[in-house]
Amino acid sequence: MTTPTVAGTGAWTPVGGLPVAAAWYGQHDGAVVLDDAGGALVAGGADATGNAIDAAARYDPVGNKWETTGGLRAARRLHTITRLLDGSVMVTGGLGGADDGGPGLPSVEVYDPGEKTWTTIDPLGQPRWGHSATLLANGSVLVAGGSAPRPGGGVHALRSTELYDPVEKTWSPAAELTDGRSGHTAVPLAGGLVLVCGGVAPVGTAEDPALAFCELYHPGDDDEWTPTGSLRQARRHHAAAALSGTTVLITGGAAPGSPGTGPYDPFSRRTAEKFDATSGTWTAVHDMPAGRALHRAVPQGAGKVLVLGGAASDRDEAGYRSAVGYTATGDAWAPAAGLDTGRWGFAAAVLPSGKVLIAGGVARSGLAAADPTVTELTRTSELFDGTAGLS
């Protein structure tokens, strides 16, 4: 069963399917824009059995299709993918094993768009997955937090962070996070700041508790993290997008056991909140029309964000087709045209044209799938034009 879709602004156009079906369950592993022409890249991810894959593909905006590129040197999922200032793309860390975990990967690879090849460079100092990787204004990359095996068994969240120097092509330790976290969002702000929010801190229980704590990274000679205002509600599997150089919108997230009233699922958050870096505070904004987690949120110009797809949880779910747009002026939500294929755990990127490209992800899992033992992935991809239908 798929969720009903309300008619909204804009339009989705199907484009060529991915060469290999994949899902991206992390916050920073989905897709990056390659060039001003509108090319995009996906790499790694998980297959229908939860195993990491080494496939990579490039979106060709001229042919409106995906083409296979050279594969990763190491299969990985829950990694990060970041476009560098010189146009190359860096992939860091992740898990190389199946859905039952593994030791984590320290390896780092860089993609050359001209040669269409991956090259292994100096590894991270700490193997990790579920971390963030943020491009700073000076071209360096900040890797923060994530998960790693806990001595004696289990998993723990990391406080450690590392900086990549694009000139020396080396990694060095950076200031530690105030709170260890994994599966968090990280958003660069004006003045070189980086805001990290939410995520989880594994404690050995069946469900990792969500975090409300947030903090800011101060680059350069400061090289420090400072706590800032906490989220009004702890969140995991949420999404974040910048509204401006000083404001960030956080949406949704999974909330096991919460008695919400969202029409998609009672255990999914409808709430959203806005961060103001000038005051370091969070304020509630109007609730989304319906709750969602494992979705994507992308900026759509000053003060606007488009929220896409998702599900209530990562078990027994069909992906949502709905999309909604938020406008900070007026604090209002409005329906956007629904996806052709409902999905969660997918890749999304805003192209230079302003159009939004989405690809892959999970269509159905568990009891929602034709075979509850097999997760149904989709190879389909779509392109959203927010101006379609406007005169």
Model description:
- With 391 residues, the protein is an all-beta fold.
- Helices cover 0% and strands 35% of the residues.
- It has strands spanning 11-15, 32-33, 40-43, 56-60, 65-68, 80-83, 89-92, 108-112, 117-121, 132-135, 141-144, 147-149, 155-157, 161-165, 170-174, 185-188, 194-197, 214-218, 224-228, 239-242, 247-251, 272-276, 281-285, 296-299, 304-308, 323-327, 332-336, 347-350, 356-359, 362-364, 376-377, 381-385.
- The strands form 9 sheets. It has a 4-stranded antiparallel sheet with strand order 1-32-29-28, with no helix packed on it. A 4-stranded antiparallel sheet has the order 2-3-4-5, with no helix packed on it. A 4-stranded antiparallel sheet has the order 6-7-8-9, with no helix packed on it.
- Residues 1-6 and 256-267 have low confidence and may be disordered.
In short:
This protein has 391 residues and is mainly β. It is 0% helix and 35% strand. Mean pLDDT is 91; it is low at 1-6 and 256-267.
Topology overview:
Blueprint: E1 11-15, E2 32-33, E3 40-43, E4 56-60, E5 65-68, E6 80-83, E7 89-92, E8 108-112, E9 117-121, E10 132-135, E11 141-144, E12 147-149, E13 155-157, E14 161-165, E15 170-174, E16 185-188, E17 194-197, E18 214-218, E19 224-228, E20 239-242, E21 247-251, E22 272-276, E23 281-285, E24 296-299, E25 304-308, E26 323-327, E27 332-336, E28 347-350, E29 356-359, E30 362-364, E31 376-377, E32 381-385
Antiparallel strand pairs: 1-32, 2-3, 3-4, 4-5, 6-7, 7-8, 8-9, 10-11, 11-14, 12-13, 14-15, 16-17, 17-18, 18-19, 20-21, 21-22, 22-23, 24-25, 25-26, 26-27, 28-29, 29-32, 30-31
